[in-house]
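A note from the maintainers: we've had questions about how concatenated examples are separated. There is no special marker in the raw files; a new sequence line simply starts the next protein. For clarity in this README we add a label.
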Amino acid sequence: MYELSPYRKNISDWIKGPAIILLLLLQSFVLAITSTTASRLSAFYGVEPETVTWFSQIGTVGLVSAIPIYYRLKLYFKKSDLLTGALICQVILSLCCYLISYAPLLLVSNFFISILKLICLLDFISLLTDRFPVMRHRALFYGIYYTIARVGGELADIFVNPTIEEHEWQAIYLIATIAAGLCIVICLLLFHRERMHRKVPLYQVDWASMLFFTGASLLFCYVLTYGQTRDWFNNQQIVAAFTGFCGLTFLFIFRQYHVKRPFWDLRVFKDYKQIPLGITFMVLMYAFYSTSLLFNKYAAYTFHGEERYLSVIALITLCAYAISFPLAGILLYKRMPVRIMLSIAFLLYAASLFIFFLDVQTYNSMHNLIAAYLMQGMAYGVMLTTLSTFTATNIPRESNGDRVMGSLSFRYILGSYAGYSLFSNWLFRGTTRHDSYLSEGITFNNSIYSSEIQQFKAGFLSHGMDSIHANSAAVVMIAKKIELQAMLLTLREVSLFMAIAAVIIALIVLFIRRFEMHEIAEENRYKIV
């Protein structure tokens, strides 16, 4: 006889919900390579920044590729054993990364830590949904879950960033060890070790498809990461990686239609029309979400001398998420049209980018950027909740795993990294172009240039430099100022272009009637959830 509930019999009902929320929040502190630690890891070990970036992307690939495996593992292991085992592995990996100073270990462990984190998160999410039946409505589910998950992520940034600044960057792994250890204690106290379902053997897992998917994803990320520094397809390694990506993608797709139990059943894209439409806009959403690269690039230049500016940005974003995710969930639950919600989200992105366009200048204050960061966070909250709700509505339980796989693959692997690569290259090429244009007017016949170089030269001479070295240093300083102005011009150019694009898309989306497919009864083949 199988148990119906995973909880121990002596656990009160009022403890269960808060305990699951605490577990989700603690998992936000289980971090490996982040944007904050990547630069420090690169400098500490002398590893190329692109290599660290690529290995950080490997973590995302591991997280996505583990989704079908999780659904098999949960049928093989007891719930308590699966959770405790994953958490113990998190502790071991995080502790090894903290104690052992070895770059390859840090880079590779990112992949496995992400897989283990995915296993824990999916199990905690299912427990949270069971504990709060109101979350069975997709809008409320995403409104509540994203609030917990995203706010938890920002809380981790607020806490972790100052810790890294004040101590060694490896402290992030110590924090992860403590967080995973606390999760183990809570799980041991909360869950019994009885089996809740029939044991299903693991031999039914399609490991070959997982290998194809993981390999194709890693090669795709490799092309996007190294493309800029290696001149894209003029480099043989980029060509080889792209060829490998295409070959593995073909093998993966071919295999999904010719095995009895596909790793990722691609038929969901044909069977449920909301999935391709929703995922297409998710990719578009991440193109706008990636404009945060512009904000962060500007903030890194403007506030790098100020302590804890990253935590201030995280606090602003936390406030935006705490407002936008639950509000969007409630509005969608009250039947607010999806088209209206998406239009509002794109207009918020447009307002954020336009404010940023106006605020970009050589010297600035964080107060001037609060509105831009706030609107950007709210736009993301409204759009992600809306698109997730739309894409997940009326998907039967047996197809839900494949829908989740599609959403996360296109969001985190295609949308996120392609968006980052797009704006990184746009910023690089725009800065180079403006730098060349500005430099053309810099000659000794230019009175401003002559005056500036004489001022710098005088300053260096007063510090004991000889005339030749002082002149060279002055020229370098002028070149840096020109490069800075070129970067600021490019930031304004890109932000204005994307703001205009957001307004256009906000208008276009109002005419896409298919977004209301769940509300128009005569055109809806499925019951409204």
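[label: protein 2]
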Amino acid sequence: MSTTETASDRFRRWARTMLAHRSGAGDVQHSADRAREVYQSSTMGALLDGVYDGDVTIAELLTHGDFGLGTFNHLDGEMVILDGTCYHLRSDGSASLAAGTDLTPFAAVTWFTTDTTIPVPSGTSRAEVIALIDEAIPSKNLIYGIRVTGTFSTIKTRTVMEQRPPYPPLTQATAGQAESEFSGVAGTLAGFRTHEYEQGISVPGYHLQFLDEARTRGGHSLDFRVEQGEIAISAASEFHLSLPRSGSSSTRTCRRPTSWIRSTKQKATEDQAVCRQRWPLGGSRVSTFVLIPGAWHAGWAWRPVARRLRDAGHQALALTMPGLADGDDPTGLRLQAAVDHVVAEVERRDLADVVLVAHSWGGYPLTGAAHSLAERLSKVVYYSAFVPARGRSALDELPPEFAATVRTAIRSSSDWTWAPTFEIVQRALMQGEPEQLQRFLFETLVPQPGNYHLDALDVPEVTSLGVPVAYVLSADDHGLGRPDAAADFIGRLGVEPIVVPGPHESLLTNPEGVTHGLLRD
């Protein structure tokens, strides 16, 4: 907005916007100095924290752009804005025109100006569309509005369901999202491509909503295949962030609700008036990251993150636990073998200033090893991981019926192992990702020594060591066995979690975001 714009000018601009919104027209004029700007109301971090009520109306939002996405108060469905018209996408897959008086807790909009168009060949998958866009954009540092218009042979969507106070964090609110699948449908995918450095502020990577041609169905896009279509790209080099203004939101923007993280120690800081954004790559201190994989995985799973840690100037060592390397015999291995392996590898290399990191089940060998390595550690990080309690095995943390099924599977196997199923990969580890990627992961995983899950640790909690501890949580994590597991584990540490986008396997699907999470102070 120009500094010379008068109140009368602003009123006329608002009136033009509302008339266009009511009629569906997209010819609203806007200031030239805003043409390359993305305007965003609130932050993704606030939404992850459960801040679902905002005071920005759709009418006000549309004065800042004619294209965008977001959600509505109470997390009541998804929002998509096309050609100056705002649509409300609900959990049953339906879509309707939003009212100008509707409120939003989070939204991002821009004035869409087509810079590049790309024809989409028939049969192009989601991954191939993303590759076409990545190849076409001139710089990965900018924000890009993405519009894919055409006919889709298949498209899978999901939509968040309306929540009621007291609001759960987004990781819990999205656990029961309804999914819809459309076939042979014409419509538009609309959203943004955002750089990883905006993690916590926006949604890094690609965030696309679908709206059909009749403007009656849609949702958040999970996967799709294009029958025929065209990609339009609009670049933006400026970013305008409007922070939450309502009193109920401002004190929770940077902190998890105390009831969720179960930490009275955090409550005093939750109510601080000023929250500080902590950027991921700070300081010049060089650390050695020792990376412990989760169940069924080996050191290969950490390679994308390890490479980025090295690019940031650190050292990284990705371990493979005994029994999980190609050709290993897993028979008879106990949990203590994994603990001893971590200790031996660190001591053999005489490592110091070690950041010990574990994913998923890896929290068990991490906790056991940390007590022997305390003098060598500068930090301990649980990444979407189990945080063991003394005397409780990994199976003790699972729902009883599922734990009983796993025990039966272990005892029935010839080598006393637990092998993953494709259903576990699809529903718990990598939900929402293309099936081809899920299949690749499934075929790469190996059976886990059963005693790794049956044995418990007899050591105090890692917080007794006096070493800094952090918890990095994947925003869409379904891989910890039960819906409230993450809350319990984080509560045992008494820390504020660092949330990164992606499923349980975000170390593979979003290694940039996980790396930034590990490097946070």
